[in-house]
């Protein structure tokens, strides 16, 4: 084996595997299929790994936020939406996702207040405020 071939093989072995765009689309679809099959944690884990390997992919973050919101993991959803806002601050689908998270956020905020958990209630309020248009 030539030194160049060995060097190429070594560089391939040390690079993390990053799916191609068509594979990425199929993996996003797989996450949706897992969710539909009731394997929500596996779907979230797959989306988390995809977000790590494709940090600029807004659709991965959007799917993650929706799934977290559906599962009642509202604060995690809000933080995911903040990451999405960082990528694409002025997109219509971001506004749509924020709208979908407002009612659950208010419910969680009110539950925290009723339980006397003011610190957690403040977290909901701060993250939601940061998501609203015009706020950094």
Explained architecture:
The structure is a single chain. With 136 residues, the chain is an all-alpha fold. The chain contains 7 helices and no strands. α3 runs antiparallel to α4 (58-70). It starts with a helix and ends in a 5-residue tail after the last helix.
Radius of gyration: 19 Å
Unreliable parts: 5-16
User: Residue share in helices?
Assistant: over 70%
Largest sheet: none
In terms of structural class, how would the helical and strand content be classed? mainly alpha
Summarize model confidence as the mean pLDDT.
85
In DSSP terms, counting alpha (H) and pi (I) runs of 4 or more, how many helices? 7
Give, in order, the helices and strands.
Answer: HHHHHHH
Straight-line N-to-C gap? 55 Å
Tell the overall outline. globular
- The portion of residues forming beta strands comes to under 5%
Number of DSSP E strands: 0
Concise account of the structure shown:
The chain has helices at 3-14, 21-36, 40-53, 58-70, 74-87, 92-114, 118-131. It is an all-alpha fold and 136 residues long.
